[in-house]
Amino acid sequence: MTHSISRRQLLKYSSFAAAAVAAPSVLRATPTKKQPNVVLIMADDLGHEAVECYGGTSHKTPRINKMAAEGMKFTKAYSQPVCTPTRVKIMTGQSNIRNYQAFSILGTEEKTTGHLMHSAGYKTAICGKWQLYGSEGYPKGIESTGMHPKDSGFETYCLWQIHKRGLRFWNPKINTNGKMKTYGKDVYGPDIFAKFGMDFMTANKDKPFFLYYPMVLTHAPMLPTPDSKNRKSTDKQKNFSDMLAYADKIVGKFIDHAEQLGIAENTLIIFTGDNGTASYIKSMMNGKLVMGGKASVHEYGNHVPFVAYWPGTIAKGKPCTDLIDFSDVYPTLAEIGGATMPKDIPFDGRSFLPQLRGEKGNPRDWYFCYYNPRPTRSGKEHIFAHDGEYKLFRTGEFYNTAKDPLQKNDLAGKTLSSAAQAAKDKLQAALDSMPAKALKLRSKGSVTETPKPTRKPRKKKPAKK
Ligand SMILES: [Ca+2]
């Protein structure tokens, strides 16, 4: 069943792999120890406010809470505000200003975390949601122009939405290593992906492995789960709670599975979310109502849960308040796996492996966000730098997001405290340090947007007399 990496891919990355072999030992995280496994689980559309260990009280997340209590909760982790921008960033370690192209596209030339870990000798797998190839239904010029998972450095895959779309939850359409299957109406997609991931762990328990599991939960459509009391409920709020509970249960299953295989102490498990929660989902957090912030450039658009579990390496229950940007995952994986970062790529991340070990590390003072999800349509871009407390846009808008998370009080032009002024100066320097404009963006008009067929107006029936 395993889909071997293609010959073209091997040739493309052979120098990459050779460099990894020749890497000086200082680059290796634990040269005398076995390379640790990594399981990276990323929920779809889940802001931090929905999770109990972040102060959420509307939904139940017992296993993620336990994971944080026994591992490390990062309190200031920031993704991008929607799917593809985040996925491109976490998989390539670069800001969207350098390599974002268009919605649903990961550039075919990119060197992913899959390539990185494969080059270091890891067995690699991905399960869950892809949406990076340009599926059917996208316009000409986007459809089938992104990276295919078989070329992504992941040797084996079980994914929803490569080229075909179909359903992701009940009656799911899933591509497993090139084989498409539409499962029955009583089959729940998340169970298929979780089983695939756990089977991969079992099969590779004696080898170093990297499993990337971008979940389809907790994205719309909000539907009952196998555990829902009312399997016909159409209450989106209730169904979201059930979906989050199910995602939480799956996270627990992966932790339990690592324990049962006897590999927990050599396996880092991370749980995060790719962007804010759907905008109509309400969550109480620390006594305040927070509406989901997906696609927004305020605090709830990209402040996500980020919890790491690694017994024996991470000290139990000590939260980390350092700023985490999704570009940091790539160099962290490289350091853990002893992989060499490709020299010709301007990476934006910093490894947080030292923080996992309880060391100071090299925490960042700011992260940079370039956000322009659909450049071929609206092309509206948002560019800001944020230090977790203050946020400065290239347009000059300036906010204290700690006090004003919805960014209603623009401080531009106002008298600033010395702390605010210092933050603004630092963030301005950060903005100035990044490219002036997006380097690989597909421009508006570069694709043929097929207009939606207009419905012929129905002929009015003659009114009854
Ligand atoms: Ca998402």
Would you write up a description of this structure?
The structure is a single chain. Helices cover 25% and strands 18% of the residues. Residues 1-32 have low confidence and may be disordered. The protein is globular, with a radius of gyration of 22 Å. The longest helix has 25 residues, at 236-260. The chain is of the alpha/beta class. Residues 44-45, 82-83, 219, 274-275 line the site of calcium ion. Calcium ion is lined by residues 44-45, 82-83, 219, 274-275.
Distance from first to last alpha carbon: 69 Å
Residue share in β-strands: 15-25%
Low-confidence stretches: 1-32
| Overall average pLDDT | 92
Structural class: alpha/beta
| Count of individual beta strands | 17
The biggest beta sheet is recorded as: 11 strands, mixed
The helix count comes to 11
Radius of gyration, taken over Cα atoms and rounded to an integer in Å: 22 Å
Shape: globular
Overall helicity: 25-40%
- Provide the list of bound ligands, each named once: calcium ion
SSE order in H/E notation? HEHEHHHEEEEHEHEEEHEEEHHEEEEH
